[in-house]
């Protein structure tokens, strides 16, 4: 009886430790949100720091995305070493150091190198956090996996408000006569000091606790031989080795294509929204656009929390369908009223809410009927990395060489592409289910 009680107590203790680790995973995953939320509102001030026009440093966006993609590739090669805690520690440390020095870079080359390293750490943290979550909760990882992007959205919202507090602003002297067609001069306006380095340093400090936590887990596992993680979930994979992938290859291709625009469109919108708003014909202030960016990330956060809650009561496919209905409605609003600031407020909030859940909702939904969790995980992350390079780079080129209004056209077009690919996956799933039922009977 005592041994049974002790065994149950040990199981409860182990289960509670898993959820402690989940908290640290969410904290670590905040690096993702900080990276995505800080660039857009801080871009004009960063350009001022290195004495460049803001259009010249837009190359930051595809640079950090390239780092993210390479980070995902590196992580897939390192999983076999069974040192998840160490890898997360090193990845977070790299991200914290790179982020701290970004505003101190001094020139465009150094700035790009540091943003590349920040993106690299983001890709590593993305993959390792999802993989560790899969190891900790192999049989019931739906809501636990969804909690990671919730943390990312929360940090994206938080950092947007932090950046807003440290942006420089042009202040008009009270006795100056300024109209909408005159420009500020040193006699009529003054600019508040550029303090954009502070948000980056704050982010670095916020990342210190999870760095120490995962380093502690690594040391404890190394010295005490404590088995905290069952790595066989992602390493042995007998079901994946023996499964016939031919019948599921079309699924994997569609899932890959679907995930290319999913997160790339979110970060493109977040990064370029400030530049879009301060341009003609809107002429909004950096402060206003930073607030809209914060609203956007707040909507992403609310959307992810809502989806985590509803996923317990509604099937994932129905939930995804409802999200697509809302997505099309709000991206259409942004497309039709692209120069109306009131509609941009409304459209940004709706777009963030309904676009927010597709990563990792589609990943967990597809894994549930394909039974290829790790393959789906890395297929989705690889596609996400490709999208984070291609879509921001395409948007920047169109932004510079065509017009800034293409941002809303691009977002609207990508939402329709996502919808078409989702419907294609649903169609294949229906055929897959019919075949399985036929085999059973």
Automatic annotation (TrEMBL):
<feature type="transmembrane region" description="Helical">
    <location>
        <begin position="112"/>
        <end position="137"/>
    </location>
</feature>
<protein>
    <recommendedName>
        <fullName>Major facilitator superfamily (MFS) profile domain-containing protein</fullName>
    </recommendedName>
</protein>
<feature type="transmembrane region" description="Helical">
    <location>
        <begin position="287"/>
        <end position="306"/>
    </location>
</feature>
<dbReference type="Pfam" id="PF07690">
    <property type="entry name" value="MFS_1"/>
</dbReference>
<feature type="transmembrane region" description="Helical">
    <location>
        <begin position="406"/>
        <end position="428"/>
    </location>
</feature>
<keyword id="KW-1133">Transmembrane helix</keyword>
<feature type="transmembrane region" description="Helical">
    <location>
        <begin position="200"/>
        <end position="219"/>
    </location>
</feature>
<dbReference type="InterPro" id="IPR011701">
    <property type="entry name" value="MFS"/>
</dbReference>
<feature type="transmembrane region" description="Helical">
    <location>
        <begin position="375"/>
        <end position="400"/>
    </location>
</feature>
<feature type="transmembrane region" description="Helical">
    <location>
        <begin position="146"/>
        <end position="166"/>
    </location>
</feature>
<feature type="transmembrane region" description="Helical">
    <location>
        <begin position="20"/>
        <end position="39"/>
    </location>
</feature>
<feature type="transmembrane region" description="Helical">
    <location>
        <begin position="343"/>
        <end position="363"/>
    </location>
</feature>
<keyword id="KW-0472">Membrane</keyword>
<keyword id="KW-0812">Transmembrane</keyword>
<feature type="transmembrane region" description="Helical">
    <location>
        <begin position="249"/>
        <end position="267"/>
    </location>
</feature>
<dbReference type="InterPro" id="IPR036259">
    <property type="entry name" value="MFS_trans_sf"/>
</dbReference>
<feature type="transmembrane region" description="Helical">
    <location>
        <begin position="318"/>
        <end position="337"/>
    </location>
</feature>
<dbReference type="GO" id="GO:0022857">
    <property type="term" value="F:transmembrane transporter activity"/>
</dbReference>
<feature type="transmembrane region" description="Helical">
    <location>
        <begin position="86"/>
        <end position="106"/>
    </location>
</feature>
<feature type="transmembrane region" description="Helical">
    <location>
        <begin position="59"/>
        <end position="79"/>
    </location>
</feature>
